[in-house]
Design brief:
10 helices; single chain; binds zinc ion; alpha+beta
Length: about 375
């Protein structure tokens, strides 16, 4: 690295771009959340406060209104602290923590998941002697009208698959037994084409990022949309055996796209990627980090139905080496924040423009060098 070419700490354009992108994404997510909140309030307009809430939710109309108000107030003011000295930033705001119906809360949760998975991956990579082959495994169940029922079907069989992978005594294990571990999350959306046929059917599936010490027997093929796919026939068979109605299994090797030659030669998996900056691993991590319902892609009615069906359920998890990795010592930046200087910006959401605008800023000086030394000593 040519140190002289590095930008001064305060001018890191990449961090500025990330902040701008985050504020824009949060703005459009916030605008969707306002729509959902209005949809909920309209659905109980004029109803008595102690009437039972609609959508099968286990509280009364007053409780539903309170949640809709919290949703409407979520992330209205953002306090962004830009730690230019340590190339870091942090957003503070009131959050409603209803990530199934709230886009801004889903973004925060997704971002935290990405950070946590990458930290775990670093730990696993440091403590694993051989090569690691990552895959993005996607498995679904047949679509159906009742989301809660599809969720039980999918999640129950997925957990069975994970518990079967542990070889114990007479137990043989399964296709997942050799894995180092993985992280996963469930996702619900309205099935493609189901509305056109006059039916409204839920598609419920799992995305798992799995890590293997050797290549998995996946086979390239072409999907019904004409795009390249990777299938895993043995796993399809097992999944059909477990679920009785579903065999949809895709398993994509995660390769370093910056080395197309390796991809073409079929030893793509050898190209995996040592580098956290690699876009394809990050893309897969983002895929498993998204929370359950892409609020941004659903109508308010779909989002509220999914919320009513899925709230309170565990919709993500990890296994193997990715379970119980101690992250306690992995983030020294957290303590640096206490000492570093930052610029604090105040952003306010504007319903008219469906985005945020800056209301003001102030500069906080960090702890002076002498004090830093005293603290560290
Ligand atoms: Zn929220």
């Amino acid at each position: 690295m040519d140190g002289q070419k590095e930008d001064a700490p305060g001018c890191n354009q990449e961090r500025r771009n990330r902040i701008t992108g985050l504020i824009q994404r949060t703005g459009s997510a916030k605008s969707r959340a306002v729509d959902v909140s209005e949809y909920i309030r309209a659905s109980v307009a004029g109803q008595h406060r102690q009437t039972l809430a609609p959508f099968g939710l286990p509280f009364d109309v007053e409780g539903l209104r309170r949640r809709a108000n919290e949703l409407a107030g979520c992330s209205t003011l953002l306090r962004l602290k830009d730690y230019f000295e340590i190339d870091d930033y942090r957003v503070e705001t009131f959050r409603c923590r209803q990530h199934l119906i709230c886009g801004p809360c889903a973004i925060v949760r997704g971002t935290n998941n990405v950070r946590s998975i990458m930290e775990r991956f670093e730990v696993v990579r440091r403590t694993t002697a051989g090569r690691i082959y990552p895959y993005l495994l996607t498995m679904g169940v047949k679509t159906g009208p009742d989301l809660a029922e599809r969720c039980r079907h999918m999640a129950g069989n997925w957990r069975k698959l994970l518990s079967e992978r542990r070889v114990r005594g007479w137990r043989q294990g399964n296709e997942l037994s050799g894995l180092l571990g993985g992280v996963y999350s469930f996702e619900a959306k309205i099935g493609k084409g189901s509305e056109r046929e006059g039916k409204r059917l839920w598609n419920f599936h799992v995305h798992a990022l799995i890590f293997s010490p050797e290549p998995l027997p996946v086979q390239p093929g072409i999907g019904s949309d004409g795009k390249a796919r990777y299938y895993w026939p043995e796993m399809s068979e097992r999944w059909r055996g477990l679920t009785g109605d579903s065999f949809i299994v895709e398993c994509h090797p995660i390769v370093d796209r910056s080395r197309p030659a390796a991809v073409a030669e079929g030893d793509a998996m050898d190209a995996v990627v040592g580098d956290l900056a690699d876009g394809s691993l990050i893309a897969a991590v983002c895929e498993v980090s998204k929370y359950a319902v892409k609020v941004a892609d659903s109508s308010p009615a779909d989002a509220v139905e999914a919320w009513a069906s899925l709230r309170g359920r565990r919709l993500c998890g990890s296994f193997g080496a990715f379970l119980g990795v101690d992250l306690a010592e992995e983030n020294p930046r957290l303590s640096l924040r206490e000492l570093a200087a930052y610029v604090e910006y105040l952003y306010r959401f504007n319903a008219g423009t469906k985005g945020y605008s800056i209301e003001g800023f102030r500069i906080h000086r960090g702890v002076p060098d002498g004090a830093t030394k005293a603290v560290i000593a």
